[in-house]
Every structure is written in C-alpha cells, then in structure tokens.
Design goal:
Blueprint (H helix, E strand, L loop, with lengths): L6 E2 L10 H11 L18 H4 L7 E4 L4 E4 L6 H12 L14 H13 L7 E6 L1 H7 L12 H22 L6 E6 L15 H16 L4 E6 L5 H5 L5 E4 L5 H5 L2 H9 L3 E7 L10 H17 L4 H6 L1 E5 L8 H21 L4
Parallel strand pairs: 1-9, 4-5, 5-6, 6-7, 7-8, 8-9
Antiparallel strand pairs: 2-3
Helix pairs in contact: 1-4, 1-13, 3-6, 6-7, 11-13
Length: about 350
C-alpha cells in the first residue's frame, strides 16, 4: 500500500516558456513524485480550461479574444453519438492529449525514460476537475455547462478518459500512479453554487475517481481555497490536497473526519509552501515550524502520529504558473528542502 511519508509533489502549472527547463526543475525538486508541467504562458491551449478539451463536442475557441465556449446546435445527435461511442469503446487512446495542448507531458515521459531516477516512488498527472470546467465553460447565452445535464455528463466522461489516457502512458514505469483533479471552483461551494447539490458534486467526482481506481491508480483532488472538506472525505478520493499555508485551521478542526479519512488509507497533501507574495519572505524554518505544529495539533487531538506522517504528502499551496520565474523556482526548492527535513524529523524513507 502506498504511503505518503511526506514525499513532495506539485499541482502542475509552471511559468516557464521552455519545456525542458520546467521538466528539469521538476526532476530536481520532486525526485520522488514528479508531475508533468502545464505551461499556460507558452500557449493558450495549455491554460487549465482549454488543456483537456480536445474531443469535447461543440467546443468553440476564439484565439484572438482568448475565449472558449460551447455552442450546441439543435441538431446535435451525430456528434453526441460519436462521443459516446468512443467513450463506450473504453479506448483511452481516442482521448489523448496532444503536444499542442500539453507539451510537458511527452517531454516528461521522455526525460524519465532517459534518466530513470532511482529515487522515484510514484508518478503524478493531473486534469482540471469537472465542476471547475463545467462551471467555467458557457454557451453563447452565458449559461454554464453545470446547468446543462447533457454536456455536464459529457465533460465528466471526457475528463475521466483524459485521466485514463495519462495513466496508460505511465504504466510502463511500473510505479504507483496518481492523478489529481484541480478543482478551484469548489472553494465557492455553498455560495456561487447554491443550486448545485452536494450529491451531484460527489457523484461526478466519484465517476472520475472510479475510472482512476479501475486502472489501479490513486486519485487526488486539489482545491486551493476553503471548501467543505468533509464532503470531499465522503467521496472515494485517495488524496486531498489543500492550501495548508493559508487555510491550515480549516482542516485541523475536523478531528473525527480527518482521523477516519487517514484510517481508511486516505492521504492529506499539505500545500504548505506558498505560491503567493508570501514566498518572498518565508523561510524553510518557518515552514518546518508550521508543518510540525500542525502534526502536533492532530496528535494532541488523539490521532496517532505515525498515521499522520505516513499518510501525508507536501506540495506548494497551488500551481506556480502565474508566479515570476524566480519565485516559482524558490517555491519548488523550498518544497524539496522541506521534504528532506520532514523525512529526517519523523524518520521516514
């Protein structure tokens, strides 16, 4: 069974234009659980809301306006039928992510094959979450796809296959495989999504988590704001990644739920390294104090320390894609240095 052991990984986005530089930074700072880099500065196609939309029926992209939307005509049967036939074939190759949308993916695979780092414990990929994509994509009348049951279902199934395609590419490495769903929209749950039922969120997320599990892989979810963490713990997700630098207390209050999540094998991925302006002043010692005090608080609440440390990962608090290059590199370097220090502190390998 995979143990977190305070190994480090990252959310996915980087500010680089040069894909090799981004991949090398990842291999240097995430030697145990590398991800592949999303490079939104390089091309609009690598922005989170576009990157995974290849194959989405009725998608329209206007590069000049930098806008993306969905326009479903009344006569839509043929295109929907084609999509569902592809989905039912269970051939993830029909839902591949091309270099035009994710240059970092193929480059990271190539580098891993060439370098074969002995330190690798797992390999991570990522997709945008269905709530975020369906909440952001709108039709010409500005109605979000969350409110279009047909296209919301298509989005969930499309993203499930995008996850499966990545896992199929990773299978040759014979390592534990992880896919994170990036769900920033969930930080608005309960306000902007008053009309969105909890059951609908849980069901759509579980459909993707189950697709990941069916490929003997671990599912994760990243939300960079505050959300209903207990709702996420009720899903079938394996790893919950939260902004532990900015919102530590919002997780620590749920003693009973956190303990049950850890005891079922769930992993907390602590987004402890800030990706905001705070990165300019924060030190390794600051982060170490913050992280060890969080462990101490949970132990004081009655949760076994070994259970916590074995079921923890660390990450930056969010993607680094919008940061200045030097600050992104500092965040990644601190993430690696903190990983080393925490493993030493808690005698983890």
């Amino acid at each position: 069974m995979f143990k977190g052991n305070f190994s480090a990984t990252a959310i996915g986005s980087y500010p680089h234009n040069n894909v090799t530089d981004a991949c090398n930074l990842i291999l240097k700072t995430l030697p145990e659980i590398p991800c592949w880099p999303q490079l939104p500065e390089r091309d609009m196609n690598e922005e989170m809301l576009v990157q995974y939309t290849e194959g989405l029926p009725f998608l329209k992209i206007d590069p000049e306006k930098k806008s993306v939307y969905v326009d479903m005509p009344e006569d839509n049967t043929d295109e929907l039928e084609k999509f569902y036939n592809n989905y039912l074939s269970e051939d993830a190759g029909l839902f591949s992510i091309s270099d035009s949308h994710a240059l970092g993916f193929s480059n990271m695979i190539k580098l891993l094959k060439e370098k074969k780092p002995e330190s690798l414990r797992a390999i991570k990929g990522q997709i945008v979450g269905p709530i975020t994509l369906a909440g952001s994509l709108k039709d010409p009348e500005q109605i979000a796809m969350l409110h279009n049951p047909t296209l919301f279902d298509v989005i969930v199934k499309l993203l499930a296959m995008k996850a499966c395609w990545q896992l199929d590419q990773y299978s040759e490495f014979e390592l534990p495989k992880i896919i994170f769903l990036d769900e920033p929209y969930l930080s608005s749950y309960g306000s902007a999504f008053a009309s969105l039922k909890k059951e609908q969120i849980v069901e759509s997320l579980n459909e993707i988590f189950m697709a990941i599990h069916n490929r003997d892989s671990l599912s994760g979810i990243h939300c960079c704001g505050n959300t209903d963490w207990t709702m996420l713990m009720e899903t079938q997700v394996d790893i919950i990644n939260f902004d532990a630098f900015g919102y530590m207390e919002t997780m620590l209050i749920y003693k009973k739920e956190v303990e049950a999540f850890l005891e079922r094998g769930g992993i907390l991925a602590w987004g402890i390294v800030p990706t905001t302006d705070s990165i300019r002043d924060v030190t390794l010692d600051d982060l170490m104090r913050k992280m060890t005090s969080a462990v101490d608080i949970l132990v004081e609440k009655g949760i076994d320390q070994k259970l916590i440390t074995e079921n923890s990962l660390i990450t930056p608090s969010c993607g680094t894609g919008t940061m200045p290059l030097d600050e992104a590199e500092k965040a990644m370097t601190l993430t690696h240095e903190l990983e080393v220090k925490l493993k030493d502190q808690y005698k983890l390998t």
